[in-house]
Amino acid sequence: MRSLVSFDPVEALRLVVRIRLAERVLTQAWADGRVPGEYHSGIGEEGIYVGVLAHLDDQDAVAVDHRSTGPLVARGVDLTALLVEVMGGQSGLNAGWAGHMHLMDRQRRVAADGIVGSSAPLAVGQAVAAQQLRPGAVAVALFGEGALNAGVVLEAMNLAVVWRLPVLFVCKDNRWSITTRTAAMTGGDPRARVTAMGVPVLTVRGERVERVHRAAGRLVRRARAGKGPGMLYATCHRPGGHFEGDPLLRILRDPRGQAGELAPGLLGGVQAETGGTGRERVAGLSTLSGRLAAAGLDRVLRSGRDPVRYARRLVPADVAARVRADEQARVAEAAAAAARSLSGLRVGGGEAGP
Question: How far apart are the C-alpha atoms of 246 and 242, rounded to whole Å?
Answer without folding.
Answer: 6
